[in-house]
Amino acid sequence: MLVRYGYEIGITCEAPTPLICLLSVHPDLMRDLRAPESFFTTPAVPSSTHIDLHGNRARRLVAPAGAFSLWGDATVSVDGLFDVAYPAAKEVAVPDLPSETLVYLQGSRYCETDLLSQTAWDMFGHLAPGWSRVQAICDFVHQHVRFDYGEARATRTAQETFEEGVGVCRDFAHLAVALCRALNIPTRYVNGHISDIGLPPVLDPMDFSAWIEVYLDQGWCTFDPRNNSPRIGRIVVSRGRDAADVALISSFGPHELTNFRVWTYEVDAV
């Protein structure tokens, strides 16, 4: 199956402003692209890319003063299957975890494992370790948190999401990440594109989405506390400890968002 994805983002800057953007498909998916990603800016400016500390492809550029837009688009081949479940997957004891997973056990900017540790053990510590316990956490978050774009707040943390019971997809992900990590389960935050392929169409405009990946004995496994149901054509853009690691645009100076459009849909073979 082929899925086309992309974005158009408009901003205005008071002065020339350096940007670091995490908007390109993750390097793990580069081999599945039908052609290199198209990328351009208006007005045109030079840019360069590098791989950041979490393995994401980051783009550096300087936005000029005034109106500025970034546009990217590509088509990627996916297997056409819903997210795979591994109900028999087991948790891995901390001494046996690969070293590269250990950073995803620690608290981070938006995921305060120290504040939520006792809560996590009280609510989920009695459950059998493994896939079913992670799913129980996602079930809880999905039911406990009310999705509301109008209540979005860039500074909301996992603890605040737990207390307030409202948020957007990043808040669902942060709370699930923090609860899993508090139970010694490595968990990382994922940003990317989610399609509605195979599902009834939705009327809301598309957006970048957040979900989580949990390390079990099957490797990194996908869970989605916001939607809490499998999806086809999940396209990873970036991974990190939380949203602070995977901001779409990190601006080193003030800017105002003026336009934001995202697309993800199935296309015919060409």
Structure description:
- By secondary structure, this protein is an alpha+beta fold.
- It has two domains: 2-79 and 248-267, Immunoglobulin-like; 94-241, C8orf32 fold.
- 17% of the residues lie in helices and 34% in strands.
- It is built from four helices and 14 strands.
- It has helices at 113-124, 131-144, 158-164, 169-182, and strands at residues 2-13, 17-21, 38-42, 47-51, 57-63, 66-77, 146-147, 166-167, 187-193, 209-216, 219-223, 235-240, 249-251, 255-267.
- The strands form four sheets. The protein has a four-stranded antiparallel beta sheet, with no helix packed on it. A four-stranded antiparallel beta sheet has the order 4-5-2-13, with no helix packed on it. A four-stranded antiparallel beta sheet has the order 11-10-9-12, covered by helices on one side.
- β7, α3 (158-164) and β8 (166-167) form a beta-alpha-beta unit.
- It is globular and about 55 Å long.
- The model has no long low-confidence stretch (mean pLDDT 95).
Brief digest:
This protein has helices at 113-124, 131-144, 158-164, 169-182, and strands spanning 2-13, 17-21, 38-42, 47-51, 57-63, 66-77, 146-147, 166-167, 187-193, 209-216, 219-223, 235-240, 249-251, 255-267. With 270 residues, the chain is α+β, with helices and mostly antiparallel strands.
